[in-house]
Design a protein that fits this description.
It is built from 8 helices and 5 strands; from the N terminus they run ααααααααβββββ. With about 200 residues, the chain is mainly α. The longest helix has 15 residues.
């Protein structure tokens, strides 16, 4: 059966450049250990950027942690054709924002912006902001290509590891006076919160 599926995938790839790109995306996401081979089949079956984005969003919606959701989006955008980055961001952020998972949405948006090629980063930011209007989330770029994510005016730590990484809370609980907490990690662990004032050096 697997040989039949492989043969079909190859035939489809020969008939469609998009299919070839999506098979490569699926293979890279499996190699990055963010999806299983079975989950990757839905990605490989996508024949348009929109279908690819839907497949990625379904995986994000079922992710157990914000870190896992962010890893899926990061791997997808890095592996997929540049033209798919905007759609992946829009669908993935919306999938968790509509469920009220604010920390997930922040993590996904930050991962998408930072994984996106510079040529489409502005479009990815716009897509994230449009998809997260229901939770009052705003994504802003920094001068070094990173992203600052705020929800209801508070800067949130958009990498996993904060106190509310299940996404079940009602707001960004990992802030202090509007600034991200450093967390309990060691000096070299985890993502460093992005400076919310990119004009001032760290």
């Amino acid at each position: 059966m697997r040989k039949t599926l492989t043969a079909f995938s190859i035939a489809l790839a020969l008939a469609s450049g998009q299919a070839m790109a999506d098979q490569a995306t699926a293979d890279k996401m499996v190699a990055a250990d963010v999806v299983t081979v079975e989950q990757a089949q839905a990605i490989a079956a996508a024949t348009t950027d929109e279908a690819l984005a839907e497949a990625v969003a379904a995986l994000v919606a079922n992710a157990k942690t914000a870190e896992a959701a962010a890893a899926i989006v990061k791997a997808a955008i890095e592996a997929a054709p540049t033209t798919a980055a905007e759609a992946i961001t829009s669908k993935a952020v919306a999938a968790v924002a509509v469920a009220g998972k604010e920390v997930f949405a922040a993590a996904v948006a930050k991962a998408a912006v930072e994984a996106a090629p510079a040529a489409v980063q502005a479009k990815v930011i716009s897509a994230a902001n449009a998809a997260a209007q229901t939770i009052d989330m705003v994504v802003s770029p920094t001068v070094d290509g990173k992203a600052v994510v705020t929800i209801k005016g508070d800067v949130v730590v958009s990498a996993a590891g904060g106190p509310d990484d299940t996404g079940t809370g009602t707001g960004p609980s990992n802030t202090t006076n509007g600034m991200p907490n450093g967390g309990s990690g060691g000096g070299g662990g985890g993502d460093k919160p992005v400076n919310p004032n990119p004009a001032s050096p760290n």
